[in-house]
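Subject: Bacterial SH3 domain protein structure
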Amino acid sequence: MMRIALFFFLMLGIAMPAAAQDREVPYWATVRAEEVNMRVGPSINYPIDWVYRRKGLPVKVVRLYQGWRLVQDPDGTQGWIVARLLSPQRGAIVIGDGLAEMRGSPETGAQLLWNVEPGVVGTLGDCRDGWCEFRVKAQEGWVREDRLWGAGEP
């Protein structure tokens, strides 16, 4: 009987996805689903405070509690989201006033590819020298790091 229990727990540990395992906080994550509820506490018994309808939206995970994560969104709102609805994939949202320039390489004088509006969400790549690779659907280029919430250290 002990062997069966040990086998079960070992298999459970192997089958657990990396995203579900605890990490050191804070860290960046993104919303995994098209619709995600943010609650006022870490349980489905707590009321829903906010509903996110933006897959890929970056959030900052600031606390862990069992299968729940206390997150902060780009507006500073904090609440609890069930861990399985968050992805470890890095994303970012354009912030600030006016259009953000997306350039062909990480430098101010590089070819201007597109102008990106504040609020646009995309996938974050490598960052260096104050610039980050940023992909929005099929458009890809470099955006200044200070125009992206979700870039840099959480």
